[in-house]
Amino acid sequence: MDDGSNAECHIKGNFRIRGIRSTNPVAVGDFVEVQSLPDGTNWITEIEDRRNYIIRRATNLSKESHILAANIDQVALIVTINHPVTSTTFIDRFLATCEAYRVRALLIFNKIDLLTDNERTQLAELRSLYESLGYETLELSAISCQPSDILPALAGKTTLLSGNSGVGKSTLLNALFGREMTRTGSISDAHNKGTHTTTFSEMYFLPDGAIIDTPGIKGFGAVSMEKEEVGHYFREIFNTSHNCRFGNCTHTGEPGCAVQEAVIKGAIAISRYDSYLSLLGDCTENKYR
Ligand SMILES: Nc1nc2c(ncn2[C@@H]2O[C@H](COP(=O)(O)OP(=O)(O)OP(=O)(O)O)[C@@H](O)[C@H]2O)c(=O)[nH]1
Ligand SMILES: [Mg+2]
Ligand SMILES: [Zn+2]
To answer: 185 CA to middle of ligand 1, Å?
Structure first.
């Protein structure tokens, strides 16, 4: 509520937002108007226009979408080199989705206390790759870090925490507040994966800003992209594509393709190009469903 207190609110069954077919009419981050009735119940009467929102389709085939969060300033993707392994394809798909939503992305590499020498090298390479593309990156150990290690990156913003199950989103949140705000779970020994401890999204207010913990999500923002669009969401591919011979080049074997040339020369990382191809493949598949 306006005074900073929490209130349990109901919503009418037929409440729907124009233009969006969503499984949840109200999402974390929404500003709403609430009417309090004499019987003590509170009813949401109005949802204010959203500055932006991040959606996830309920399933790949479904036209209904789930609004993950609304009115956010940046998304922090928590990445672990190991325990669990986060693939570069996952990171790049995530970043492409943020580009599509025009939402700022921040990469937080967590669990650096667990890294072997090889994994440390990998971390340094990945940070330098993403920094070179203009993404802000951080590295830390959420189990032992201080709020001051993270707060500057969150100041003045509403940040959505995202990342695979078990990467430490809830642990990071607890570190920020210096006490247990939310439950954390262990990594399964058998699968080196998280166990989906957080089951719904929740917003927490910081002295300057807010942070939203979300359940570990596999299919974050499976936005439907047109094949021609995919290249726009990879910054270096987009920039290089201006030098391709054909304006509609998909960078998959056309003659005079500047992107493929840059990949061969090492100016564009192979991991990024692979991720591009993987997203492109999805578009082609969806078309023929
Ligand atoms: N060694 C180490 N373990 C960590 C670190 N951060 C988190 N963990 C552990 O990783 C496990 C998973 O952490 P959570 O915070 O529950 O992960 P989550 O991302 O919230 O997972 P979901 O809620 O399932 O999406 C817990 O056992 C944490 O203690 C870290 O920096 N170092
Ligand atoms: Mg969690
Ligand atoms: Zn090309």
So the answer is: 6
